[in-house]
Amino acid sequence: MDARTKIIVADDHPLFREALIHAIKGCVGAADVVEAATLESLQDAVEDHVDADLLLLDLHMPGVTGFSALAYIRNRREMLPTVIVSANDEPATIRRAIQHGASGFIPKSSGMETIEAALGAVIAGSVWVPDGVALEATRLDQKEQSNADALADLTPHQFRVLLMIAEGLMNKQIAYQLGVSEATIKAHVTAILKKLGVNNRTQAVLAVKSLDVEQKAFNGTADG
Amino acid sequence: MDARTKIIVADDHPLFREALIHAIKGCVGAADVVEAATLESLQDAVEDHVDADLLLLDLHMPGVTGFSALAYIRNRREMLPTVIVSANDEPATIRRAIQHGASGFIPKSSGMETIEAALGAVIAGSVWVPDGVALEATRLDQKEQSNADALADLTPHQFRVLLMIAEGLMNKQIAYQLGVSEATIKAHVTAILKKLGVNNRTQAVLAVKSLDVEQKAFNGTADG
DNA sequence: CCGCGCACTAGACCAATGTCTAATGCGTCG
DNA sequence: CGACGCATTAGACATTGGTCTAGTGCGCGG
Asked: Which of A194, B114, B125, B137 has the most CB within a 10 Å radius?
């Protein structure tokens, strides 16, 4: 039974996915790797591979930013250890990730040995954060916490619809992209609003955004 | 003509306003101080006191979060030096503030001498940031920049309406709070959407949020 | 095997949102 | 002063959003 370690790698950047996979091999040897570059494929991967041992999750994928995906997946696979991978390396962000249930946090600036050490530690069952980050006994903001709980309770379709709403799409566009009727989307929207405890889509967007992380605007000096 | 230094202090926390005013006195001696605790009073203060020499602006006031207020005011009073005051003290946030045209940045954790030094430097015409923060030649994210430009172009009423939209209020509620008819709000909304280059209120909210700053969720250890 | 709950689908209907047209008032420039 | 631009106001109308009701398919416990 005891198959090889199975790891899901969710990151929209192919090169970085490859680097992560390389680190995985260096850490656990042979491993089953499932790659996901979009929210949809991530959802599929999580549903299809219930036996996965680890999830590496980028904080910034197209259509999913911040901790919403983490909250959602944590609720469906409580036992799936998840490591957040992000260009953002602020202690506050790292702490929030752990408080949202992540088992580890790897800044994208990390070297290969660091990444391997982190993966090893998390697979072994412990929580890993970069050196020098203290996991003080802070609590999440109350609204952020309750919004995370509510988001986690959404069904897969509802979650996708909500994220599309949070991109500013109209119901009609969402319906077209998902290949269903607009009436269906409206029904989903109503269910989402009820679960989030809000009255309209704007407030739903605010709930999603409360889980967002300030993105590193990182383009450095204006060319050479 | 040369009246006393006139300073506008915008912060919703009375105690902190008082501390800031104290620092002002210690720095420039007697000064005309105009206090603002809400967005509306801030707008009024800026319009009524065209001769103000300095604006101290909290990053987190009820109804206005992040750099939207800074962008808006910078566009109306290009020559009014503005110092951002915030609990957030991350270098990235400080850099963003300066790139949005702030003349200084004072973390709320600063000591009194630091605050006085900062105010003195800015009044003297230079830019002040906390020790150890390098103002590298970074550029703002393109969308953040263009959204800031668009926000700055709104009229006072339009700006207030937009921020109320960004709180999730319905047109009807906004109309009631501002004491005008709902039709008026709708007209404002249309003008806002046009200026922001978007199609609906949800996208307008996203534009505002692109100027937001991650708020420090700072409640520390769960009581003693 | 059957019934039950739930996710998903959808149409009809009502409420909120957004557009178009237009009137008023105010400051500026000629 | 008078013409013009612009912010503000508002009503009529079109579009989008959200609720209600209801049918279908699927998994789970009796």
From this structure: B114
Q: How far is CA A29 from CA A32, A57, A71, A82, B80, in A?
A: 10, 20, 29, 19, 61
Nucleotides of C under 7 A from a protein CB: 6-12, 16-22
Span of A203-217, B145-159, B186-200 with lowest mean pLDDT: A203-217
**Spatial separation of the C-alpha atoms in residues B188 and B194, rounded to whole Å:** 10
C-alpha–C-alpha distance, residues A44 and A22, integer Å: 23
Test mutation, B196, B202, B211, B216, chain A, max A CBs within 10 A: B202
Q: Which residue, among A197, A185, A191, has the nearest Cα to A150 in the 3D structure?
A: A197
DSSP conformation class of A221? S
- Reported as type and span, the H/E element at residue A34 is strand A31-36
Residue closest to B165 by CA, chosen among B142, B213, B214, B198: B198
Q: What is the CA radius of gyration of chain B?
A: 18
Written as one string, the DSSP assignment of A139-187 is: ---HHHHHHHHHHHTS-HHHHHHHHHHTTT--HHHHHHHHTS-HHHHHH
Shortest CA distance to B104 belongs to which of B90, B124, B84? B84
B125-137 confidence digits (pLDDT tens)? 999 999 988 877 7
B200 touches strand D (CB under 7 A): yes
What's the predicted TM-score (pTM) here? 0.89
